[in-house]
């Protein structure tokens, strides 16, 4: 792996180091870079050519490569996972804040300025970026309490609903924090646990200019037809992490419920839509459900009826692919009794149960969408 100290020139007084890791010259990395440069704050945009020709990336950037705020570095490690590239970006950052941008994504104009202003006002160590899907609506996370901007609580404000650490991260607050290397998926899971549950000051304002997530690229390094075990490979790192182990049982239970609902059932649904589950995949589901149940008592009680039904079908070797598809149902339909009613009826109004969590997500998504239609206060003052 490249040695960061030898490759990195001395940094100026940049407050933000925006890091963009690119794995192929087919990515529209120039879109991401140009959007980051549309800010007034002192910043550096670091583009890391990861296992790809750095000259091809420079050609792709065109005149942007000559901007004094842009530096282009190369990392060749032969590893398909993005973790090493992300960590390299952290290691070469010398600014006050680190901000990660996907090579096929972009920022709304003035986003970094607005996020930095919030960090200064709230004395925040972490500013969570609002996310909008290109051509679509706002992303419904984190599902914060109404009217809350800062300081936020990892449990009460459901910060764990957001795993991708997009926004601003104060480097001095997390000097040794790195993405989990050596696993094919979920490299940001333990990383985000530290952001939300290690006592940092966290802020989020859904009305600020958003991070814009594109889906026009089909070659993401974390995608592909692989064993289901790859989708939960991060669990071992999480279970051995000191911050995770220090979390209150209620918080661990809420995180486990989210992982079952989003990651495990999502992994099952993707494979059932294709070729179905293998015997090994079903064994992984059985093991994963048992592990997550061990994190805290009462996990099943927080689940919606349809989610527990889907998990039971996936764990039963006698269930055919067709039966499993029917058990999964239409995952886009949320306003149904099976999607809203909890296995434990006493948990139906719990903040991490589907009813309140979904309502909070809808509110956040609408706020992000509204910020796109009308300039935020931060944009208006500029």
Helix content: 25-40%
CA-based gyration radius? 21 Å
What is the rounded distance between the termini? 42 Å
Shape: globular
Strand content: 5-15%
Query: Averaging pLDDT over every residue, what do you get?
Result: 91
**Largest sheet, spatial ordering of strands:** 3-2-1-4-8-6-9
Please provide the ordered H/E string of secondary-structure elements.
Answer: HEHEHEHEEHEEEHEEHHHHHHHHHH
By CATH, the architecture of the largest domain is named: Alpha-Beta Complex
Q: What class, by secondary structure content?
A: alpha/beta
CATH top level label of the largest domain: Alpha Beta
Which residues form runs of ≥5 with pLDDT under 50? 1-11, 220-224, 374-382
Number of DSSP strands? 10
What is the subunit arrangement here? single chain
Count of individual domains: 2
Question: Topology, pairings included?
Answer:
Blueprint: H1 4-7, E1 16-22, H2 29-36, E2 43-50, H3 54-61, E3 70-75, H4 83-92, E4 97-102, E5 106-107, H5 111-122, E6 126-128, E7 131-133, E8 167-170, H6 189-197, E9 202-204, E10 211-213, H7 235-239, H8 242-246, H9 249-272, H10 279-293, H11 299-302, H12 305-315, H13 321-328, H14 337-340, H15 354-373, H16 377-381
Parallel strand pairs: 1-2, 1-4, 2-3, 6-9, 7-10
Antiparallel strand pairs: 4-8, 5-10, 6-8
Explain what you see.
This protein is an alpha/beta fold. The chain folds into 2 domains: 13-221, Spore Coat Polysaccharide Biosynthesis Protein SpsA, Chain A (Alpha-Beta Complex); 228-362, no CATH class. Helices cover 40% and strands 12% of the residues. It has 16 helices and 10 strands. It has helices at residues 4-7, 29-36, 54-61, 83-92, 111-122, 189-197, 235-239, 242-246, 249-272, 279-293, 299-302, 305-315, 321-328, 337-340, 354-373, 377-381; strands spanning 16-22, 43-50, 70-75, 97-102, 106-107, 126-128, 131-133, 167-170, 202-204, 211-213. The strands form 2 sheets. The protein has a 7-stranded mixed sheet with strand order 3-2-1-4-8-6-9, sandwiched between helices. Strands 5-10-7 form a 3-stranded mixed sheet. Strand 1 (16-22), helix 2 (29-36) and strand 2 form a beta-alpha-beta unit. Helix 9 (249-272) packs antiparallel against helix 10 (279-293). It is globular, with a radius of gyration of 21 Å. The model is unreliable at 1-11, 220-224 and 374-382 (pLDDT under 50).
């Amino acid at each position: 792996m490249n040695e960061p100290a030898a490759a990195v020139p001395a940094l100026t007084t940049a407050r933000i180091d925006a890091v963009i890791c690119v794995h192929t010259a087919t990515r529209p990395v120039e879109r991401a870079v140009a959007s980051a440069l549309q800010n007034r704050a002192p910043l550096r945009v670091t583009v890391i050519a990861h296992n790809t020709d750095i000259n091809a990336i420079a050609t792709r950037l065109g005149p942007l490569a000559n901007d004094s705020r842009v530096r282009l570095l190369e990392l060749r490690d032969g590893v398909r996972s993005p973790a090493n590239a992300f960590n390299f970006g952290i290691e070469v950052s010398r600014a006050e804040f680190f901000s990660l941008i996907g090579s096929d994504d972009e920022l709304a104009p003035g986003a970094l300025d607005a996020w930095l202003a919030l960090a200064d006002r709230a004395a925040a160590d972490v500013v969570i970026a609002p996310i909008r899907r290109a051509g679509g609506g706002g992303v419904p996370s984190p599902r914060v309490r109404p009217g809350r901007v800062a300081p936020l609580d990892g449990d009460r404000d459901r910060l764990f609903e957001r795993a991708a650490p997009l926004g601003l991260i104060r480097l001095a607050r997390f000097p040794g924090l790195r993405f989990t290397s050596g696993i094919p998926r979920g490299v940001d899971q333990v990383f985000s646990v530290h952001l939300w549950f290690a006592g940092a000051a966290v802020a989020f304002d859904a009305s600020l200019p958003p991070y814009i997530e594109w889906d026009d690229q089909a070659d993401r390094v974390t995608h592909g037809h692989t064993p289901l075990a790859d989708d939960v490979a991060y669990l071992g790192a999480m279970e051995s992490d000191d911050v995770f182990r220090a979390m209150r049982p209620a918080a661990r239970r809420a995180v486990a419920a989210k992982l079952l609902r989003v990651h495990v059932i999502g992994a099952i649904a993707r494979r059932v839509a294709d070729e179905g589950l293998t015997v090994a995949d079903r064994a992984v589901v059985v093991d994963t459900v048992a592990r997550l149940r061990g994190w805290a008592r009462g996990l099943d009680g927080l689940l919606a009826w349809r989610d527990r039904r889907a998990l039971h079908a996936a764990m039963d070797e006698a269930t055919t692919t067709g039966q499993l598809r029917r058990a999964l149902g239409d995952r886009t339909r949320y306003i149904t009794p099976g999607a809203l009613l909890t296995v434990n009826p006493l948990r139906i109004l719990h903040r991490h149960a589907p009813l309140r969590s979904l309502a909070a997500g809808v509110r956040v998504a609408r706020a992000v969408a509204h910020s796109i239609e009308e300039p935020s206060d931060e944009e208006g003052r500029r």
